[in-house]
């Protein structure tokens, strides 16, 4: 379906520079723009592409000042990144929704499947499971006994949801993620380690997205909680009894040890490690590879480093670290000079 610059600008409440009748039917990256596509420019580092792109329409920030004219029609908006996200969401919602249960899917007779669901071949829905309206379950996904899945969720291929876990509405579980495997609980004994039964569950609230091959362990007792709006990247590990607060975001390979409580709207870069049995205050930001070994009590704290410290202090420490060879040479020189002075006495 084609959309004109005027239609797009009206939807986004933007202003047009160029041909308001220019039409597009799909999207492209600005560096690979083709006629008939719409793209965007939000990062100034990509500005040079706008002068040569073949894309028909480009979304740009209101504040952008161009060095020379461009051939594309521009739509100016307050935030081009947010605007393209809104268009992509609209584009995705416009696709026809799949429905129906494939005859090669297995659904236990005691399970309940809601209206307008879509279940692909070799998916398994276990005993007493409840699947909400409009939910999609793709091939080879396993929904265990007693699991509850809310409306309009998406469970991609090879996802495993262990027994009795609770999944909210509009949750997206990407391929290979595991929800509700046993927490890493073992007690030392004379014969090695005795397994501690993990009798709790995982609860994932509404509007959560979980990346591919991410693991969220069931609690020893009670629940491991992923609160509403949380976004977890691929290969994240959330251990047993953890609570992740609303709208927190974790990049790839973050690891959270057991019983840690993470606040609201925190942000963790790639490979951040978080120790167990600690608390992380609301709006904490941790830079990539930070190792958080203790509780962070102050809201809005930004940390980085191993072990993680305040980001501004880390920057000062890093400046010293970069100069360590020169400092070491100066110290050695001072030692030699001091030794010479002592000899003269």
How would you portray this structure in words?
- The chain has three domains: 3-94, 3-Layer(aba) Sandwich (Udp-n-acetylmuramoylalanyl-d-glutamate--2,6- Diaminopimelate Ligase, Chain: A, domain 1), CATH 3.40.1390.10; 100-313, 3 Solenoid (UDP N-Acetylglucosamine Acyltransferase, domain 1); 320-344.
- 17% of the residues lie in helices and 30% in strands.
- The strands form six sheets. The protein has a twelve-stranded mixed β-sheet.
- The longest helix is centred in the last third of the chain and has 21 residues, at 324-344.
- It is flat, with a radius of gyration of 27 Å.
- It starts with a strand and ends with a helix.
- The model has no long low-confidence stretch (mean pLDDT 95).
What are the SSEs and their pairings?
Blueprint lengths: L2 E2 H8 L2 E3 L5 E2 L1 E2 L9 E5 L5 H4 L6 E5 L11 E5 L2 H15 L5 E2 L4 E2 L4 E2 L4 E2 L4 E2 L4 E2 L4 E2 L4 E2 L4 E2 L4 E2 L4 E2 L4 E2 L4 E2 L4 E4 L4 E4 L2 E4 L5 E4 L4 E2 L4 E3 L5 E4 L4 E2 L4 E2 L4 E2 L4 E2 L4 E2 L4 E2 L4 E2 L4 E2 L4 E2 L4 E2 L4 E2 L9 E3 L4 E2 H12 L1 H21 L1
Parallel strand pairs: 4-5, 5-6, 6-7, 8-11, 9-12, 10-13, 11-14, 12-15, 13-16, 14-17, 15-18, 16-19, 17-20, 18-21, 19-24, 20-25, 21-26, 24-27, 25-28, 26-29, 27-30, 28-31, 29-32, 30-33, 31-34, 32-35, 33-36, 34-37, 35-38, 37-39
Antiparallel strand pairs: 1-3, 2-7, 22-23, 39-40
Task: Describe the structure using short key phrases.
UDP N-Acetylglucosamine Acyltransferase, domain 1; flat; 12-stranded mixed beta sheet; 40 strands; 345 residues; 17% helix; 3 domains; alpha/beta; Udp-n-acetylmuramoylalanyl-d-glutamate--2,6- Diaminopimelate Ligase, Chain: A, domain 1; 10-stranded parallel beta sheet
């Amino acid at each position: 379906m084609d959309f004109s610059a005027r239609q797009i600008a009206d939807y986004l409440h933007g202003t047009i520079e160029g041909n308001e009748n220019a039409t597009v039917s799909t999207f492209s990256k600005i560096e690979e723009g083709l006629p008939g596509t719409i793209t965007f420019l939000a990062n100034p580092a990509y500005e040079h592409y706008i002068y040569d792109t073949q894309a028909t329409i480009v979304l740009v920030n209101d504040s952008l000042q161009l060095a020379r004219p461009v051939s594309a029609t521009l739509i100016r908006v307050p935030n081009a990144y947010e605007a393209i996200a809104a268009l992509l969401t609209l584009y995705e919602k416009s696709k026809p929704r799949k429905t129906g249960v494939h005859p090669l899917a297995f659904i236990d007779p005691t399970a309940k499947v809601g209206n307008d669901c879509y279940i692909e071949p070799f998916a398994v829905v276990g005993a007493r499971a409840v699947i909400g309206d409009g939910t999609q379950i793709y091939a080879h996904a396993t929904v265990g006994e007693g699991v509850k899945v809310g409306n309009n969720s998406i469970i991609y291929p090879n996802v495993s949801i262990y027994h009795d876990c609770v999944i909210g509405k509009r949750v997206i579980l990407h391929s290979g993620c595991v929800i509700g495997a046993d927490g890493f609980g073992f007690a030392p004994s004379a014969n090695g380690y005795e397994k501690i039964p993990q009798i709790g569950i995982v609860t994932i609230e509404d509007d959560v997205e979980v990346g591919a091959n991410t693991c969220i362990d069931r609690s020893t007792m009670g629940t491991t909680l992923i609160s509403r709006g949380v976004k977890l990247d691929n290969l994240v590990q959330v251990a047993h009894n953890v609570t992740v607060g609303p709208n927190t975001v974790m990049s790839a390979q973050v690891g959270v040890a057991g019983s840690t409580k993470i606040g609201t709207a925190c942000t963790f870069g790639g490979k951040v490690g978080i120790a167990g049995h600690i608390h992380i205050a609301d709006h904490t930001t941790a830079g990539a590879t930070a190792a958080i070994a203790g509780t962070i009590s102050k809201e809005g704290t930004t940390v980085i480093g191993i072990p993680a410290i305040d980001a501004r202090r880390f920057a000062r420490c890093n400046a010293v670290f970069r100069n360590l060879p020169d400092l070491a040479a100066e110290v050695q020189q001072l030692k030699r000079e001091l030794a010479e002075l002592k000899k003269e006495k």
